[in-house]
Every structure is written in structure tokens, then in C-alpha cells.
Amino acid sequence: MYDIIGYCEAETVSEATALLAQNPNLRLIAGGTDVLIKMHGGQIEAVELLSLRKIKSLAEIRKAEDGTVVIGAMATFTKVFNDPILREVIPILTEAAISMGGPQIRNIATIGGNVCNGATSADSASSLFALNAQLKLVSQQSERLVPIREFYLGPGRVALKPGEILTEIHISPADYQGFGGQYIKFAMREAMDIATLAVSVVCKLHGKTFEEVRIGLGVAGPTPLRCLEAEVYAPGKDVSVESVAEIGKLAVNSAKARTSWRASKDYREHLVEELVQRALKTAIVNAGGEQLV
Amino acid sequence: MFKRIAFSVNGKAFNFEVDIRESLLEMLRNRLGYTGTKKGCGVGECGACSVLIDGVPFDSCIYLAVWADGKEITTIEGVASKSGELSEVQKAFVDEGAVQCGFCTPGLVLTTTALAGSGKEYTQDELKRELSGHLCRCTGYQSILKAAEKSLEGHICTCVDSPHYKQQHERNEG
Ligand SMILES: Cc1cc2nc3c(=O)[nH]c(=O)nc-3n(C[C@H](O)[C@H](O)[C@H](O)COP(=O)(O)OP(=O)(O)OC[C@H]3O[C@@H](n4cnc5c(N)ncnc54)[C@H](O)[C@@H]3O)c2cc1C
Ligand code: FES
Ligand code: FES
């Protein structure tokens, strides 16, 4: 038995925000793959749950008229992986989705829960960072769009205010059109494992030079992060083995890796340098560039 | 706190009050006696507790019983025919010797049943991936994979479609 002392469910977002406004102690539950595990481990106790599972509209994935990709917070990883729009326009997200957990976990775990749980290892996070994703947070009184980089505050801490629900993840066309990308999850097993390091890279080319490069890292610090120094260096540089190597080196400067039982700080930094290069090389090909040898 | 829900298990309809603290696993085993559903880890890692909900595999240990409202659940007890004849998937597991202690078997048979019933084609890699949510401490998995391949005969293709696998293949070759 789980340590649950109350349970209610909403069928619409406004019903959910109203319930939250009435009772700030309610803890949201989506797929439960983080919340229930925490209850099992005794990290959270005597929980009053508000389930979002019956809000069908929150599971949709669509492309708005202006090209913005809108992913409902309740979309499961299985749904994200199989979605034809995402596969076509942002495969770094579908690849991140399939690398997560195992089939039974992906059938229930949601992308919204992944982000709101606030883990640096969240498989969707490095790609959402690289894609400049914006999060739509809705409460009874207000509605706001927050860039994902401002959402992660620290390990397990996110910028949700009391009463707020994440409803949608937005990715604007300017952030994906014309880009090629690559996601690499480095873990000890091919399935059912948390990343030792995760790298997500997107790049846009202008002839034989870089126009823009964006690099998201997971497990390289207390939160997912971007490699801004490397990103500032890239524009205008020739697409070459040398510039890619420099980008890999600069990426390490942004990492705040530490030693954990999974890997040492030095090893993680080595992974950042190496995997950023590998991911970028594939991203270049995916962006229509020539393969670097 | 209790909540009334209606659902079915292996075609049999139920309608009663469940404890909001209960997992589907606890409800199936302790209240309804479907003890073919096994508890391994209790935290979504091992797949021993997997059941099909509307035909899709889920870990019942981290699925709240209240969520079963309106759902059709299939446990291992519902796989063989009423007269006791084994399903094709079960026969394949027996033929390939894919069962040792048997603790992982109900979950694996159910997931394989869902794959066989989907009518989709799977590559060898995809098949491994679809079974990766089940831990087996006995067999070493080869016989399980063979049993799954046999169950999906005619639905195994050799194409490599996903960039994920290209990445994996390159890593393995390089
Ligand atoms: C066996 C196992 C393997 C796993 N493997 C991986 C893995 O490989 N990679 C990985 O990244 N994760 C993994 N996880 C962790 C977990 O599955 C993911 O983080 C998952 O995406 C969480 O989603 P959920 O819907 O289950 O969230 P829940 O557990 O329901 O919620 C998570 C948190 O987010 C809050 N929340 C949920 N939805 C909303 C919303 N819409 N608005 C505001 N707050 C919300 C909840 O209150 C809670 O604090 C694994 C978990 C298990 C049990
Ligand atoms: S008992 Fe449910 S996954 Fe292990
Ligand atoms: S047969 Fe014993 S765990 Fe699989």
C-alpha cells in the first residue's frame, strides 16, 4: 500500500487548477513513475494526490499554424516516440524518448512528469534545452510561458509556483527549422538505465560554415545545462574536424560535472568532450552537411 | 478512503470499492487471487508484475488500482483457452525451454502476446527493445528471444529503421 491519504482527479485543466487553488497540499500525479517510487522509498509521506490522467486534451501533440510544435504534458514517452510530427521535425526528442526506461515505463511515464521532476538525468531535458523549449504553466489566475533553462532551479527543484500546472511544451519553428540534430545517451545498459551523460546537439549550416550550434547536456551538472561558450564560438567557423574538436573542448568549460557512483568527474568531462564531437558530427550530416572524416 | 470502480479481468466484469492506496498488483493478487501476477521489485524495474491493460503492457506494481476504472485487464491466467489449451506464445516458451524458475514468465508471455497481437513488424533489435522491461535471473535471455521470435513468425523484418539503432550498430562495429 502506498502512503496516500487523499485522491482526487480532474477532467479538465480548469478543474485541476481550481482544485489546486483550494488545496495547496495536493501533489500532482501524471504517470506516477517518480511520485510512486518516492512514496515507496519513504521520501514523501501522507500524500494527497490530484491525478491529471483523465485530462485527455493534455496528451495531444500537434503543430500550430505558425509551425510551433506543441506537446501536451501528459503525452507518454511511447506516444512521443511514435508521433509522426515529432519524428519528422525533431527526431532528437523521439530518440531521447525511446532511450528512456523500458516499454512498460514509457507506456505510462509522461514528458511533463519528466520535466517537472527536475532531475538532471531526465532523458527529455537535454533535447528540450537544445531546442529552446518553452513551458506553458497555468494556474487558476494566470498563464505564463517559461524558457526551460529558467525552469530548472536545482536538483529536483523547478520553477512551478504553488497552484501551477505544466500544460504544454512549445518548440518554435525558428528553433528547429533547418537544423539537424543528434541525441546520445551514454549509459551502462541499452535499456532501463539512467544516463551517465546525455548530449543533445542541434546545428544549422550556412554553406561550409556553422550558422548556429546549440548543445544541451544532462548529468553534467546539478541541472541540465547549455554549453554557451562553445555555442558562441561556433557561428561563422568552417565546418571542420578542428572546429568540431574546439567546440568539444569548450563544451567542457560549461559542464559542472561531479563524481558520483556512476562515474568520476574526470570521466564525465572526457565524455562531454568526446560525445559533443560525435553528436555534432552526426548533426552536421543531418543538417545537410558533408560527413567529416 | 475508498473509490468504486468497474473493470474486467480476463473478460470477467468486476465492480467494487478499492482502497486508494492500493496498487493494481495488490488488488489482483490479494483481493482477486490472480497470483500469476508476480511481485519482484515493486518499483517498476523488473517487469514480473506486468499485465495488459486494454492490450498494452504496464507494470502493475506502480499502477494505482483506482486507475483500472473502465479498463480491460489481462493477466497470465487469461492467456490459455478456457479448456486449458496453451496459446501459441505459451507453446513457443515451452518449446524453446524459455522457462526455468518461471518468475519472469507471466510478464514475458503477456508482453510477447501483446506484440504478436499488434500485427506490426519488428526488427530483431526492436524485439529485444520491446522485451527489455523484463528481467530474467535464470535463462540468459537467449531462449526467451527465440520463443518471442517464434511467436512473431512472419512479423520479423531485417530493416534498420531507427537512427537509434544506426547509432547502436555503429558503436558496436566501431
Ligand atoms: C523503472 C524506472 C526507470 C526509469 N528510467 C528513466 C530513464 O531512463 N530516464 C528518465 O529520464 N527517467 C526515468 N525514470 C523516471 C521517470 O519515469 C520519469 O521522470 C518520468 O518521465 C516521470 O513522469 P511521470 O508522468 O511518471 O511523472 P509523475 O511521477 O507522475 O510526476 C513527477 C513529478 O512531476 C510532477 N508533475 C507531473 N506532471 C505535472 C504537470 N503536468 N504539471 C506540474 N507538475 C507535474 C509531479 O507532481 C511529480 O513531482 C524511470 C523511472 C522508473 C520507475
Ligand atoms: S514488481 Fe513491478 S516491475 Fe518489478
Ligand atoms: S526463468 Fe527465472 S527469472 Fe526468468
Descriptive notes:
The complex is a heterodimer of chains A (293) and B (174). By secondary structure, chain A is an alpha+beta fold. Chain A has 3 domains: 48 residues, Uridine Diphospho-n-acetylenolpyruvylglucosamine Reductase, domain 2; 117 residues, Uridine Diphospho-n-acetylenolpyruvylglucosamine Reductase, domain 3 (2-Layer Sandwich); 107 residues, CO dehydrogenase flavoprotein, C-terminal domain (Enolase-like, domain 1), CATH 3.30.390. Chain A has 13 helices and 14 strands. In chain A, the strands form 4 sheets. In chain A, strands 4-5-10-6-7 form a 5-stranded antiparallel β-sheet. In chain A, α12 crosses α13. The model of chain A has no long low-confidence stretch (mean pLDDT 97). By secondary structure, chain B is an alpha+beta fold. Chain B folds into 2 domains: 76 residues, Roll (Ubiquitin-like (UB roll)); 87 residues, DNA polymerase, domain 1, CATH 1.10.150. Chain B has a 5-stranded mixed β-sheet, covered by helices on one side. Chain B is globular and about 55 Å long. The N and C termini of chain B lie far apart (57 Å). At the A-B interface, β1, α2, α5 and α6 of A face β4, α4 and α6 of B. Bound molecules: flavin-adenine dinucleotide (FAD) and FE2/S2 (inorganic) cluster (2 copies). One FE2/S2 (inorganic) cluster binds next to loops of chain B.
